[in-house]
What does this fold into?
Amino acid sequence: MVRFTEASKQAVIDSIDAVAVVEDYLRLEKKSGRYWGLCPFHHEKTPSFTVDPDKKSYYCFGCHQGGSIVSFIMEMDKLSFPEAIEHLSNRFGIPLIYENGGFEKRESKTGELAELYRRVAASFNHILLNTNEGEKTKQYITDRKISAETIGRFLLGFAPADRHWLHRFLIGKGFSPDFLAASGLFSRRYPQSAFFSNRLIFPIRDKDGRTLAFGGRILEGEGPKYINSADSEIFKKGRTLFALDLALPEIRQTKEVFLAEGYMDVLALHQGGITNAVAPLGTSFTDDQAKLLKRWAEKVFFMMDNDEAGQNAAYKAILCCRRNGLNCAVVDTSGFFKEKGTIPKDPAEILQKFGPEALKNSVKCNILDINFVISRSRALTKGPQSVVFLFSYLDALDSEVARDEAIGAIADAFGVERRAVWEDYRRKKAGEPSGGSEQKVNSGSAKPIRSGYELYLMGTVFVNPGFFKVLRSGLEMEDLEDVNARELFIILEEWYRETGTSETALLPGELLDRLEDENLRDFILRHEALGSFANPDKLVEDGMKRITEKVLEKKRRKIIRELRNAAGETYNNGISQAGIPKQADLLAEKIHIDAELTKLKGRHLQPSEGS
It folds into this structure.
Protein backbone atom coordinates (compact mmCIF):
# COMPACT_ATOMS: atom_id res chain seq x y z
CA MET A 1 0.00 0.00 0.00
CA VAL A 2 1.27 3.48 -0.89
CA ARG A 3 2.08 5.53 2.23
CA PHE A 4 2.82 9.26 2.26
CA THR A 5 4.35 11.19 5.10
CA GLU A 6 1.70 12.99 7.14
CA ALA A 7 3.38 16.34 6.51
CA SER A 8 3.35 16.03 2.70
CA LYS A 9 -0.20 14.67 2.69
CA GLN A 10 -1.36 17.61 4.80
CA ALA A 11 0.48 20.02 2.50
CA VAL A 12 -1.56 18.71 -0.44
CA ILE A 13 -4.83 18.97 1.51
CA ASP A 14 -3.98 22.52 2.64
CA SER A 15 -3.33 23.52 -0.97
CA ILE A 16 -6.77 22.44 -2.17
CA ASP A 17 -8.98 25.09 -3.74
CA ALA A 18 -12.30 23.40 -3.02
CA VAL A 19 -14.32 25.51 -5.46
CA ALA A 20 -11.86 24.91 -8.32
CA VAL A 21 -11.88 21.15 -7.70
CA VAL A 22 -15.68 20.85 -7.64
CA GLU A 23 -16.04 23.13 -10.68
CA ASP A 24 -14.12 20.49 -12.63
CA TYR A 25 -17.34 18.48 -12.34
CA LEU A 26 -20.26 20.92 -12.07
CA ARG A 27 -21.16 24.60 -12.14
CA LEU A 28 -21.27 26.55 -8.88
CA GLU A 29 -22.80 29.92 -7.96
CA LYS A 30 -21.88 31.93 -4.87
CA LYS A 31 -24.70 32.74 -2.43
CA SER A 32 -24.33 33.81 1.22
CA GLY A 33 -20.70 32.79 1.53
CA ARG A 34 -21.28 29.30 0.14
CA TYR A 35 -21.16 27.93 -3.37
CA TRP A 36 -24.26 26.13 -4.68
CA GLY A 37 -24.87 23.75 -7.58
CA LEU A 38 -26.95 20.81 -8.77
CA CYS A 39 -25.97 17.68 -6.87
CA PRO A 40 -24.00 15.16 -8.97
CA PHE A 41 -25.15 12.29 -6.73
CA HIS A 42 -28.90 12.54 -7.28
CA HIS A 43 -31.26 14.11 -9.82
CA GLU A 44 -32.55 17.56 -8.91
CA LYS A 45 -33.69 20.75 -10.61
CA THR A 46 -33.07 23.18 -7.73
CA PRO A 47 -29.50 23.40 -6.37
CA SER A 48 -29.09 21.84 -2.93
CA PHE A 49 -25.41 20.88 -3.19
CA THR A 50 -23.05 23.26 -1.36
CA VAL A 51 -19.30 23.75 -1.08
CA ASP A 52 -17.58 25.42 1.87
CA PRO A 53 -14.21 26.76 0.60
CA ASP A 54 -12.88 27.44 4.09
CA LYS A 55 -13.57 23.97 5.46
CA LYS A 56 -12.75 22.36 2.11
CA SER A 57 -15.91 20.30 2.33
CA TYR A 58 -19.20 19.67 0.53
CA TYR A 59 -22.73 18.75 1.56
CA CYS A 60 -26.03 18.09 -0.23
CA PHE A 61 -29.20 19.10 1.63
CA GLY A 62 -31.20 16.90 -0.74
CA CYS A 63 -29.51 13.49 -0.50
CA HIS A 64 -27.45 14.29 2.65
CA GLN A 65 -24.19 13.14 1.12
CA GLY A 66 -21.14 15.11 2.21
CA GLY A 67 -17.53 15.05 3.31
CA SER A 68 -14.12 16.43 2.46
CA ILE A 69 -13.02 17.44 -1.03
CA VAL A 70 -10.73 14.39 -1.02
CA SER A 71 -13.76 12.14 -0.49
CA PHE A 72 -15.59 14.08 -3.23
CA ILE A 73 -12.79 13.22 -5.70
CA MET A 74 -12.84 9.60 -4.53
CA GLU A 75 -16.58 9.36 -5.13
CA MET A 76 -16.66 11.15 -8.48
CA ASP A 77 -13.70 9.38 -10.09
CA LYS A 78 -13.92 6.09 -8.13
CA LEU A 79 -10.40 6.49 -6.74
CA SER A 80 -8.74 5.12 -3.62
CA PHE A 81 -7.54 7.61 -1.01
CA PRO A 82 -3.87 7.45 -2.18
CA GLU A 83 -4.97 7.89 -5.81
CA ALA A 84 -7.10 10.90 -4.88
CA ILE A 85 -4.21 12.48 -2.98
CA GLU A 86 -1.90 11.87 -5.97
CA HIS A 87 -4.50 13.47 -8.26
CA LEU A 88 -4.70 16.56 -6.06
CA SER A 89 -0.91 16.64 -5.77
CA ASN A 90 -0.70 16.89 -9.57
CA ARG A 91 -3.63 19.34 -9.72
CA PHE A 92 -2.01 21.88 -7.40
CA GLY A 93 1.66 21.14 -7.97
CA ILE A 94 2.49 20.03 -4.42
CA PRO A 95 5.06 17.20 -4.29
CA LEU A 96 4.32 14.12 -2.20
CA ILE A 97 6.98 12.51 -0.01
CA TYR A 98 6.75 8.79 0.62
CA GLU A 99 7.60 7.14 3.92
CA ASN A 100 10.85 5.82 2.49
CA GLY A 101 11.89 9.45 2.06
CA GLY A 102 11.68 9.49 -1.75
CA PHE A 103 9.83 11.90 -3.99
CA GLU A 104 9.53 9.30 -6.74
CA LYS A 105 5.97 8.29 -7.55
CA ARG A 106 4.76 4.74 -7.27
CA GLU A 107 2.42 4.82 -10.22
CA SER A 108 -0.84 2.89 -10.19
CA LYS A 109 -1.51 0.80 -13.28
CA THR A 110 -3.71 3.63 -14.53
CA GLY A 111 -0.85 6.08 -14.06
CA GLU A 112 1.61 3.77 -15.77
CA LEU A 113 -0.65 3.40 -18.81
CA ALA A 114 -1.19 7.15 -19.01
CA GLU A 115 2.57 7.71 -18.84
CA LEU A 116 3.12 5.14 -21.61
CA TYR A 117 0.56 6.84 -23.85
CA ARG A 118 2.12 10.23 -23.13
CA ARG A 119 5.52 8.99 -24.27
CA VAL A 120 4.09 7.30 -27.37
CA ALA A 121 2.21 10.50 -28.30
CA ALA A 122 5.42 12.52 -28.01
CA SER A 123 7.28 9.96 -30.17
CA PHE A 124 4.61 10.01 -32.88
CA ASN A 125 4.71 13.82 -32.86
CA HIS A 126 8.50 13.78 -33.31
CA ILE A 127 8.21 11.35 -36.25
CA LEU A 128 5.62 13.59 -37.92
CA LEU A 129 7.64 16.78 -37.57
CA ASN A 130 11.21 15.62 -37.90
CA THR A 131 11.50 12.55 -40.15
CA ASN A 132 11.23 11.84 -43.85
CA GLU A 133 8.63 9.15 -43.14
CA GLY A 134 6.31 11.73 -41.63
CA GLU A 135 6.81 14.31 -44.40
CA LYS A 136 3.90 13.22 -46.60
CA THR A 137 1.46 13.27 -43.67
CA LYS A 138 2.75 16.65 -42.55
CA GLN A 139 2.15 17.95 -46.08
CA TYR A 140 -1.41 16.58 -45.98
CA ILE A 141 -2.07 18.47 -42.75
CA THR A 142 -0.60 21.66 -44.21
CA ASP A 143 -2.73 21.28 -47.34
CA ARG A 144 -5.77 21.09 -45.08
CA LYS A 145 -4.71 24.53 -43.77
CA ILE A 146 -3.84 23.25 -40.30
CA SER A 147 -1.18 25.48 -38.78
CA ALA A 148 1.99 24.47 -36.95
CA GLU A 149 0.50 26.00 -33.79
CA THR A 150 -2.55 23.73 -34.04
CA ILE A 151 -0.36 20.69 -34.71
CA GLY A 152 1.55 21.46 -31.54
CA ARG A 153 -1.53 22.21 -29.46
CA PHE A 154 -3.16 18.89 -30.35
CA LEU A 155 0.20 17.05 -30.47
CA LEU A 156 -0.62 15.43 -33.80
CA GLY A 157 1.68 12.60 -34.81
CA PHE A 158 2.45 9.89 -37.33
CA ALA A 159 2.58 6.14 -36.67
CA PRO A 160 5.23 4.45 -38.87
CA ALA A 161 4.21 1.90 -41.49
CA ASP A 162 6.43 -0.73 -39.85
CA ARG A 163 4.04 -2.40 -37.40
CA HIS A 164 6.92 -3.76 -35.29
CA TRP A 165 8.72 -0.43 -34.83
CA LEU A 166 6.74 0.69 -31.79
CA HIS A 167 7.28 -2.55 -29.88
CA ARG A 168 11.04 -2.48 -30.50
CA PHE A 169 11.17 1.18 -29.49
CA LEU A 170 9.29 0.69 -26.22
CA ILE A 171 11.19 -2.46 -25.27
CA GLY A 172 14.34 -0.38 -25.75
CA LYS A 173 12.91 2.17 -23.31
CA GLY A 174 12.56 -0.47 -20.60
CA PHE A 175 8.89 -1.43 -20.85
CA SER A 176 8.19 -5.13 -20.30
CA PRO A 177 6.57 -7.32 -22.98
CA ASP A 178 3.72 -8.28 -20.60
CA PHE A 179 2.92 -4.64 -19.82
CA LEU A 180 2.94 -3.72 -23.52
CA ALA A 181 0.72 -6.69 -24.38
CA ALA A 182 -1.91 -5.36 -21.96
CA SER A 183 -1.54 -1.72 -23.02
CA GLY A 184 -4.02 -1.72 -25.91
CA LEU A 185 -1.34 -0.50 -28.32
CA PHE A 186 -0.80 -3.90 -29.94
CA SER A 187 -2.75 -6.74 -31.53
CA ARG A 188 -3.92 -9.35 -29.05
CA ARG A 189 -3.06 -12.16 -31.46
CA TYR A 190 0.26 -10.67 -32.58
CA PRO A 191 1.56 -8.79 -29.51
CA GLN A 192 4.49 -7.21 -31.34
CA SER A 193 2.25 -5.77 -34.09
CA ALA A 194 1.11 -2.19 -33.42
CA PHE A 195 -2.60 -1.37 -33.61
CA PHE A 196 -1.79 1.91 -35.38
CA SER A 197 0.48 2.03 -38.41
CA ASN A 198 0.91 4.39 -41.37
CA ARG A 199 -1.67 6.79 -39.94
CA LEU A 200 -2.01 10.39 -38.87
CA ILE A 201 -2.39 10.16 -35.08
CA PHE A 202 -4.71 12.21 -32.85
CA PRO A 203 -3.95 11.80 -29.12
CA ILE A 204 -7.14 11.47 -27.07
CA ARG A 205 -6.89 13.05 -23.62
CA ASP A 206 -9.11 13.32 -20.56
CA LYS A 207 -10.25 16.64 -19.08
CA ASP A 208 -6.99 16.89 -17.12
CA GLY A 209 -4.86 16.49 -20.25
CA ARG A 210 -3.73 12.88 -19.67
CA THR A 211 -3.34 10.92 -22.90
CA LEU A 212 -5.64 7.88 -22.69
CA ALA A 213 -5.90 6.62 -26.27
CA PHE A 214 -5.38 7.48 -29.93
CA GLY A 215 -7.38 8.05 -33.05
CA GLY A 216 -5.77 7.30 -36.39
CA ARG A 217 -6.54 8.48 -39.94
CA ILE A 218 -5.20 6.51 -42.88
CA LEU A 219 -4.00 8.55 -45.86
CA GLU A 220 -3.19 5.72 -48.26
CA GLY A 221 -3.43 1.95 -48.32
CA GLU A 222 -6.04 -0.51 -47.10
CA GLY A 223 -8.33 0.08 -44.12
CA PRO A 224 -11.08 2.37 -42.84
CA LYS A 225 -10.39 6.09 -42.88
CA TYR A 226 -10.52 6.39 -39.07
CA ILE A 227 -9.95 3.95 -36.20
CA ASN A 228 -9.74 4.48 -32.42
CA SER A 229 -8.06 2.66 -29.57
CA ALA A 230 -10.22 -0.04 -28.06
CA ASP A 231 -11.81 0.55 -24.66
CA SER A 232 -9.41 -0.12 -21.79
CA GLU A 233 -8.99 0.39 -18.06
CA ILE A 234 -8.30 4.09 -18.62
CA PHE A 235 -10.38 4.77 -21.74
CA LYS A 236 -14.07 4.41 -22.58
CA LYS A 237 -15.11 5.82 -25.97
CA GLY A 238 -18.66 6.52 -24.82
CA ARG A 239 -17.45 8.55 -21.83
CA THR A 240 -14.72 10.58 -23.51
CA LEU A 241 -14.77 13.61 -25.81
CA PHE A 242 -11.97 14.62 -28.14
CA ALA A 243 -10.27 17.93 -27.18
CA LEU A 244 -12.25 18.38 -23.94
CA ASP A 245 -9.07 19.37 -22.10
CA LEU A 246 -8.41 22.18 -24.60
CA ALA A 247 -12.05 23.27 -24.82
CA LEU A 248 -12.84 23.30 -21.10
CA PRO A 249 -11.61 26.84 -20.23
CA GLU A 250 -13.86 28.41 -22.89
CA ILE A 251 -16.78 26.09 -22.05
CA ARG A 252 -16.59 27.14 -18.39
CA GLN A 253 -16.55 30.81 -19.35
CA THR A 254 -19.33 30.78 -21.98
CA LYS A 255 -21.40 27.83 -20.69
CA GLU A 256 -21.59 26.79 -24.37
CA VAL A 257 -19.97 24.01 -26.38
CA PHE A 258 -19.76 23.20 -30.11
CA LEU A 259 -20.10 19.52 -30.94
CA ALA A 260 -18.55 18.51 -34.27
CA GLU A 261 -18.44 15.12 -35.96
CA GLY A 262 -14.72 14.34 -36.16
CA TYR A 263 -11.12 15.14 -35.33
CA MET A 264 -10.35 17.36 -38.33
CA ASP A 265 -13.52 19.39 -37.71
CA VAL A 266 -12.45 20.09 -34.13
CA LEU A 267 -8.96 21.14 -35.28
CA ALA A 268 -10.54 23.50 -37.81
CA LEU A 269 -12.92 25.04 -35.27
CA HIS A 270 -10.15 25.66 -32.73
CA GLN A 271 -7.98 27.22 -35.44
CA GLY A 272 -10.94 29.42 -36.38
CA GLY A 273 -11.13 30.74 -32.82
CA ILE A 274 -14.00 28.47 -31.67
CA THR A 275 -11.98 26.91 -28.88
CA ASN A 276 -14.98 25.42 -27.05
CA ALA A 277 -15.33 22.66 -29.67
CA VAL A 278 -15.25 18.90 -29.00
CA ALA A 279 -16.28 15.70 -30.80
CA PRO A 280 -17.38 12.16 -29.92
CA LEU A 281 -15.02 9.39 -30.92
CA GLY A 282 -16.34 7.84 -34.11
CA THR A 283 -19.57 6.59 -32.55
CA SER A 284 -22.93 8.12 -31.70
CA PHE A 285 -23.04 10.83 -29.04
CA THR A 286 -23.90 9.12 -25.74
CA ASP A 287 -25.77 9.94 -22.53
CA ASP A 288 -22.50 9.68 -20.60
CA GLN A 289 -20.92 12.29 -22.90
CA ALA A 290 -23.94 14.57 -22.45
CA LYS A 291 -23.71 14.21 -18.66
CA LEU A 292 -20.02 15.03 -18.87
CA LEU A 293 -20.74 18.28 -20.75
CA LYS A 294 -23.59 19.12 -18.36
CA ARG A 295 -21.01 19.66 -15.62
CA TRP A 296 -19.93 22.91 -17.28
CA ALA A 297 -22.20 23.75 -20.23
CA GLU A 298 -25.79 24.89 -20.56
CA LYS A 299 -26.12 24.81 -24.35
CA VAL A 300 -24.75 22.65 -27.15
CA PHE A 301 -24.34 23.86 -30.74
CA PHE A 302 -24.25 20.95 -33.18
CA MET A 303 -22.02 21.26 -36.21
CA MET A 304 -22.37 17.84 -37.83
CA ASP A 305 -21.57 17.04 -41.45
CA ASN A 306 -23.93 18.53 -44.00
CA ASP A 307 -25.09 15.14 -45.34
CA GLU A 308 -27.80 12.64 -44.46
CA ALA A 309 -25.66 10.70 -42.00
CA GLY A 310 -24.58 13.91 -40.28
CA GLN A 311 -28.14 15.22 -40.01
CA ASN A 312 -29.34 11.91 -38.54
CA ALA A 313 -26.47 12.00 -36.05
CA ALA A 314 -27.45 15.56 -35.06
CA TYR A 315 -31.05 14.47 -34.45
CA LYS A 316 -29.99 11.60 -32.16
CA ALA A 317 -27.54 13.87 -30.33
CA ILE A 318 -30.28 16.46 -29.73
CA LEU A 319 -32.45 13.83 -28.03
CA CYS A 320 -29.46 12.76 -25.95
CA CYS A 321 -28.72 16.32 -24.82
CA ARG A 322 -32.34 17.14 -24.07
CA ARG A 323 -32.69 13.98 -21.95
CA ASN A 324 -29.82 15.27 -19.86
CA GLY A 325 -30.99 18.86 -19.42
CA LEU A 326 -28.91 20.61 -22.09
CA ASN A 327 -30.35 23.24 -24.42
CA CYS A 328 -29.50 22.81 -28.10
CA ALA A 329 -29.12 24.60 -31.41
CA VAL A 330 -27.90 23.44 -34.83
CA VAL A 331 -25.41 25.42 -36.89
CA ASP A 332 -26.72 25.89 -40.44
CA THR A 333 -24.09 27.37 -42.75
CA SER A 334 -26.04 26.84 -45.99
CA GLY A 335 -27.30 30.43 -46.12
CA PHE A 336 -23.88 31.86 -45.29
CA PHE A 337 -22.15 30.05 -48.16
CA LYS A 338 -24.98 29.99 -50.70
CA GLU A 339 -23.77 33.13 -52.45
CA LYS A 340 -20.28 31.65 -52.73
CA GLY A 341 -21.62 28.96 -55.08
CA THR A 342 -20.85 25.95 -52.89
CA ILE A 343 -21.98 24.72 -49.49
CA PRO A 344 -19.11 23.04 -47.59
CA LYS A 345 -19.77 19.68 -45.98
CA ASP A 346 -18.12 20.33 -42.62
CA PRO A 347 -15.94 22.76 -40.60
CA ALA A 348 -12.72 21.20 -41.97
CA GLU A 349 -13.81 21.99 -45.52
CA ILE A 350 -14.82 25.53 -44.54
CA LEU A 351 -11.35 26.17 -43.10
CA GLN A 352 -9.60 24.66 -46.12
CA LYS A 353 -11.61 26.53 -48.76
CA PHE A 354 -12.59 29.79 -47.09
CA GLY A 355 -10.23 30.32 -44.15
CA PRO A 356 -10.56 30.76 -40.36
CA GLU A 357 -12.43 34.07 -40.44
CA ALA A 358 -15.23 32.65 -42.61
CA LEU A 359 -15.45 29.64 -40.30
CA LYS A 360 -15.70 31.84 -37.23
CA ASN A 361 -18.47 33.94 -38.78
CA SER A 362 -20.39 31.00 -40.22
CA VAL A 363 -21.00 29.35 -36.84
CA LYS A 364 -23.12 32.35 -35.86
CA CYS A 365 -25.80 31.00 -38.24
CA ASN A 366 -27.83 28.57 -36.15
CA ILE A 367 -31.41 27.46 -35.60
CA LEU A 368 -33.19 26.19 -32.49
CA ASP A 369 -33.28 22.43 -32.12
CA ILE A 370 -37.10 22.34 -32.31
CA ASN A 371 -36.96 23.92 -35.78
CA PHE A 372 -34.30 21.42 -36.83
CA VAL A 373 -36.24 18.35 -35.66
CA ILE A 374 -39.37 19.66 -37.38
CA SER A 375 -37.41 19.92 -40.64
CA ARG A 376 -36.09 16.36 -40.14
CA SER A 377 -39.63 15.14 -39.58
CA ARG A 378 -40.75 16.71 -42.85
CA ALA A 379 -37.80 15.20 -44.68
CA LEU A 380 -38.29 11.66 -43.35
CA THR A 381 -42.07 11.28 -42.96
CA LYS A 382 -45.39 12.36 -44.47
CA GLY A 383 -48.86 13.21 -43.21
CA PRO A 384 -49.86 12.62 -39.55
CA GLN A 385 -46.73 10.55 -39.04
CA SER A 386 -44.70 13.76 -39.19
CA VAL A 387 -46.19 14.85 -35.86
CA VAL A 388 -45.82 11.36 -34.36
CA PHE A 389 -42.13 11.39 -35.34
CA LEU A 390 -41.61 14.35 -32.99
CA PHE A 391 -42.99 12.61 -29.89
CA SER A 392 -39.53 11.21 -29.12
CA TYR A 393 -38.29 14.82 -28.94
CA LEU A 394 -41.12 15.71 -26.56
CA ASP A 395 -40.19 12.69 -24.43
CA ALA A 396 -36.63 13.96 -24.14
CA LEU A 397 -37.57 17.39 -22.76
CA ASP A 398 -37.07 17.67 -19.00
CA SER A 399 -39.77 20.23 -18.17
CA GLU A 400 -43.48 20.71 -18.89
CA VAL A 401 -42.85 24.34 -19.84
CA ALA A 402 -40.36 23.34 -22.53
CA ARG A 403 -42.72 20.59 -23.70
CA ASP A 404 -45.63 23.02 -23.96
CA GLU A 405 -43.54 25.47 -26.02
CA ALA A 406 -42.42 22.65 -28.32
CA ILE A 407 -45.99 21.44 -28.84
CA GLY A 408 -46.98 24.99 -29.79
CA ALA A 409 -44.17 25.10 -32.38
CA ILE A 410 -45.19 21.70 -33.76
CA ALA A 411 -48.85 22.70 -34.01
CA ASP A 412 -47.96 25.92 -35.83
CA ALA A 413 -45.55 24.14 -38.20
CA PHE A 414 -48.08 21.53 -39.33
CA GLY A 415 -51.25 23.65 -39.10
CA VAL A 416 -52.98 21.53 -36.46
CA GLU A 417 -54.58 22.35 -33.11
CA ARG A 418 -52.26 22.45 -30.13
CA ARG A 419 -54.90 20.57 -28.13
CA ALA A 420 -54.89 17.74 -30.67
CA VAL A 421 -51.09 17.36 -30.46
CA TRP A 422 -51.26 17.34 -26.65
CA GLU A 423 -54.04 14.72 -26.66
CA ASP A 424 -52.30 12.37 -29.11
CA TYR A 425 -49.07 12.71 -27.16
CA ARG A 426 -50.87 12.02 -23.85
CA ARG A 427 -52.49 8.89 -25.28
CA LYS A 428 -49.20 7.68 -26.66
CA LYS A 429 -47.59 8.10 -23.23
CA ALA A 430 -50.47 6.23 -21.59
CA GLY A 431 -50.33 3.45 -24.18
CA GLU A 432 -53.90 4.08 -25.29
CA PRO A 433 -54.99 3.41 -28.91
CA SER A 434 -56.31 6.43 -30.81
CA GLY A 435 -57.28 5.42 -34.34
CA GLY A 436 -54.92 5.23 -37.30
CA SER A 437 -52.56 7.94 -36.09
CA GLU A 438 -51.94 6.23 -32.77
CA GLN A 439 -51.40 2.87 -34.44
CA LYS A 440 -48.48 4.44 -36.26
CA VAL A 441 -47.14 5.70 -32.95
CA ASN A 442 -47.17 2.22 -31.46
CA SER A 443 -45.56 0.74 -34.55
CA GLY A 444 -42.79 3.32 -34.36
CA SER A 445 -42.13 2.71 -30.68
CA ALA A 446 -41.72 -1.03 -31.28
CA LYS A 447 -38.88 -0.31 -33.70
CA PRO A 448 -36.75 2.48 -32.19
CA ILE A 449 -34.18 2.11 -34.98
CA ARG A 450 -35.04 2.90 -38.59
CA SER A 451 -33.78 -0.14 -40.45
CA GLY A 452 -32.58 -0.15 -44.05
CA TYR A 453 -30.39 -2.25 -46.29
CA GLU A 454 -27.19 -0.71 -44.85
CA LEU A 455 -28.14 -1.68 -41.32
CA TYR A 456 -29.26 -5.17 -42.36
CA LEU A 457 -25.94 -5.64 -44.17
CA MET A 458 -23.89 -4.62 -41.15
CA GLY A 459 -26.17 -6.57 -38.79
CA THR A 460 -25.61 -9.66 -40.92
CA VAL A 461 -21.83 -9.21 -40.80
CA PHE A 462 -21.97 -8.43 -37.07
CA VAL A 463 -23.51 -11.84 -36.30
CA ASN A 464 -21.46 -13.52 -39.05
CA PRO A 465 -18.09 -11.76 -38.63
CA GLY A 466 -16.36 -14.15 -41.02
CA PHE A 467 -17.71 -11.89 -43.78
CA PHE A 468 -16.05 -8.75 -42.44
CA LYS A 469 -12.78 -9.38 -44.25
CA VAL A 470 -14.49 -9.34 -47.66
CA LEU A 471 -16.70 -6.40 -46.68
CA ARG A 472 -13.82 -4.17 -45.57
CA SER A 473 -11.94 -4.98 -48.78
CA GLY A 474 -14.83 -3.62 -50.85
CA LEU A 475 -16.34 -0.87 -48.70
CA GLU A 476 -15.22 1.90 -46.36
CA MET A 477 -17.10 3.19 -43.35
CA GLU A 478 -17.64 6.51 -45.17
CA ASP A 479 -19.67 4.65 -47.83
CA LEU A 480 -22.36 4.03 -45.21
CA GLU A 481 -24.93 6.77 -44.56
CA ASP A 482 -26.78 5.03 -41.74
CA VAL A 483 -25.21 6.11 -38.44
CA ASN A 484 -26.03 2.76 -36.77
CA ALA A 485 -24.49 0.82 -39.63
CA ARG A 486 -21.37 2.95 -39.23
CA GLU A 487 -21.23 2.14 -35.53
CA LEU A 488 -21.32 -1.60 -36.25
CA PHE A 489 -18.58 -1.17 -38.88
CA ILE A 490 -16.35 0.64 -36.35
CA ILE A 491 -16.79 -2.07 -33.72
CA LEU A 492 -16.00 -4.80 -36.24
CA GLU A 493 -12.98 -2.93 -37.58
CA GLU A 494 -11.52 -2.39 -34.12
CA TRP A 495 -12.08 -6.06 -33.24
CA TYR A 496 -10.55 -7.16 -36.55
CA ARG A 497 -7.45 -5.01 -36.10
CA GLU A 498 -6.99 -6.12 -32.48
CA THR A 499 -7.23 -9.82 -33.27
CA GLY A 500 -5.80 -9.75 -36.80
CA THR A 501 -8.49 -12.18 -37.91
CA SER A 502 -11.97 -12.51 -39.30
CA GLU A 503 -12.57 -15.99 -37.92
CA THR A 504 -16.00 -16.74 -36.53
CA ALA A 505 -14.69 -18.43 -33.36
CA LEU A 506 -15.59 -15.74 -30.86
CA LEU A 507 -16.17 -15.85 -27.15
CA PRO A 508 -19.92 -15.61 -26.40
CA GLY A 509 -21.02 -11.99 -26.52
CA GLU A 510 -17.52 -10.70 -27.37
CA LEU A 511 -18.79 -8.30 -30.04
CA LEU A 512 -22.07 -7.51 -28.27
CA ASP A 513 -20.12 -6.47 -25.18
CA ARG A 514 -18.59 -3.67 -27.26
CA LEU A 515 -22.02 -2.38 -28.32
CA GLU A 516 -23.02 0.42 -25.94
CA ASP A 517 -26.19 1.60 -27.74
CA GLU A 518 -29.03 -0.35 -26.11
CA ASN A 519 -31.45 0.20 -29.01
CA LEU A 520 -28.90 -1.06 -31.51
CA ARG A 521 -28.06 -4.01 -29.29
CA ASP A 522 -31.77 -4.85 -29.09
CA PHE A 523 -32.06 -4.57 -32.89
CA ILE A 524 -29.26 -7.12 -33.36
CA LEU A 525 -30.60 -9.58 -30.78
CA ARG A 526 -34.22 -9.29 -31.93
CA HIS A 527 -33.50 -9.73 -35.63
CA GLU A 528 -31.07 -12.56 -35.01
CA ALA A 529 -33.80 -14.36 -33.04
CA LEU A 530 -36.28 -13.72 -35.86
CA GLY A 531 -33.88 -15.18 -38.42
CA SER A 532 -33.51 -11.88 -40.29
CA PHE A 533 -29.80 -12.51 -40.83
CA ALA A 534 -30.22 -16.01 -42.27
CA ASN A 535 -28.65 -16.69 -45.67
CA PRO A 536 -25.76 -14.28 -44.98
CA ASP A 537 -24.02 -14.99 -48.32
CA LYS A 538 -26.92 -13.48 -50.23
CA LEU A 539 -27.49 -10.60 -47.81
CA VAL A 540 -23.83 -9.57 -47.88
CA GLU A 541 -23.59 -9.88 -51.66
CA ASP A 542 -26.75 -7.83 -52.28
CA GLY A 543 -25.94 -5.24 -49.62
CA MET A 544 -22.41 -4.59 -50.86
CA LYS A 545 -23.61 -4.38 -54.44
CA ARG A 546 -26.30 -1.80 -53.57
CA ILE A 547 -23.92 0.37 -51.55
CA THR A 548 -21.20 0.22 -54.20
CA GLU A 549 -23.71 1.21 -56.88
CA LYS A 550 -24.97 4.07 -54.69
CA VAL A 551 -21.43 5.39 -54.11
CA LEU A 552 -20.58 5.23 -57.81
CA GLU A 553 -23.86 6.88 -58.83
CA LYS A 554 -23.21 9.67 -56.33
CA LYS A 555 -19.73 10.23 -57.78
CA ARG A 556 -21.19 10.15 -61.29
CA ARG A 557 -23.78 12.85 -60.46
CA LYS A 558 -21.06 15.02 -58.92
CA ILE A 559 -18.90 14.68 -62.05
CA ILE A 560 -21.84 15.65 -64.27
CA ARG A 561 -22.37 18.80 -62.19
CA GLU A 562 -18.67 19.63 -62.40
CA LEU A 563 -18.74 19.06 -66.17
CA ARG A 564 -21.51 21.61 -66.48
CA ASN A 565 -19.56 24.10 -64.37
CA ALA A 566 -16.39 23.48 -66.41
CA ALA A 567 -18.34 24.04 -69.62
CA GLY A 568 -19.57 27.34 -68.21
CA GLU A 569 -16.02 28.36 -67.30
CA THR A 570 -14.87 27.60 -70.87
CA TYR A 571 -17.74 29.53 -72.39
CA ASN A 572 -17.20 32.55 -70.14
CA ASN A 573 -13.41 32.63 -70.11
CA GLY A 574 -12.53 31.49 -73.62
CA ILE A 575 -11.11 28.25 -74.96
CA SER A 576 -7.59 29.18 -73.96
CA GLN A 577 -8.52 28.89 -70.27
CA ALA A 578 -8.41 25.80 -68.07
CA GLY A 579 -11.98 24.72 -68.82
CA ILE A 580 -11.20 22.24 -71.62
CA PRO A 581 -8.42 20.30 -69.83
CA LYS A 582 -10.63 20.10 -66.78
CA GLN A 583 -13.51 18.77 -68.87
CA ALA A 584 -11.25 16.12 -70.38
CA ASP A 585 -10.21 14.86 -66.94
CA LEU A 586 -13.81 14.78 -65.76
CA LEU A 587 -14.97 12.94 -68.87
CA ALA A 588 -12.27 10.33 -68.41
CA GLU A 589 -13.35 9.82 -64.81
CA LYS A 590 -17.01 9.56 -65.85
CA ILE A 591 -16.18 6.93 -68.50
CA HIS A 592 -14.32 4.91 -65.85
CA ILE A 593 -17.26 5.08 -63.44
CA ASP A 594 -19.73 4.13 -66.18
CA ALA A 595 -17.61 1.07 -66.95
CA GLU A 596 -17.48 0.13 -63.25
CA LEU A 597 -21.26 0.41 -62.97
CA THR A 598 -21.76 -1.74 -66.04
CA LYS A 599 -19.36 -4.36 -64.73
CA LEU A 600 -20.92 -4.27 -61.27
CA LYS A 601 -24.35 -5.27 -62.53
CA GLY A 602 -23.00 -8.69 -63.47
CA ARG A 603 -20.50 -9.18 -60.67
CA HIS A 604 -21.01 -11.52 -57.70
CA LEU A 605 -19.19 -10.91 -54.46
CA GLN A 606 -18.01 -13.96 -52.53
CA PRO A 607 -16.63 -14.24 -49.00
CA SER A 608 -12.91 -14.94 -49.06
CA GLU A 609 -11.85 -18.52 -48.58
CA GLY A 610 -11.67 -19.42 -44.92
CA SER A 611 -13.51 -16.26 -43.82
